[in-house]
Amino acid sequence: MAKRSTHPALTTARLAEIRRLRTVVETEKPAIIEKGRQHLARRQRIVKAIEALKKAQQELCLTLDEVAGRSGIAKPNLSRLFNDAEPNPTIDTLLRVADAVHVPLLK
User: Fold this and answer.
1) pLDDT of residue 41
2) Dmax of the chain from CA atoms?
3) Gap between the Cα atoms of 17 and 39, Å rounded
4) Are the C-beta atoms of 73 and 97 separated by less than 8 Å?
5) What domains lie within the chain, and their CATH numbers?
6) CA dist 42 to 9, 47, 49, 56, 57, Å?
7) CA Rg value for the chain
8) Are 62 and 101 in contact (CB under 8 A)?
9) pTM for the whole thing?
């Protein structure tokens, strides 16, 4: 029969440590939430940029092969950029595709 693991006894010192850690977490929580919001806002900007690039590609009736030739980015990488649920392109990739489809990415 397998031995069941048990939690260590909650000593006074352990309870004090848990309380201290809870205080640290509560103190840091607003900063963590703000960093998460900032990260989400950046992700949304990236997704919007990719959507604009894909729209321009479609409006110009360019195939992925043509965009690949113009940008120097391999077709499978472009496919992932345009279709991946969680794309994570470099700024260089975005700029190269933007140049290829004639979209001013930076204002």
Assistant:
1) 95
2) 70
3) 31
4) yes
5) 20-100 (1.10.260.40)
6) 45, 9, 11, 21, 23
7) 24
8) yes
9) 0.74
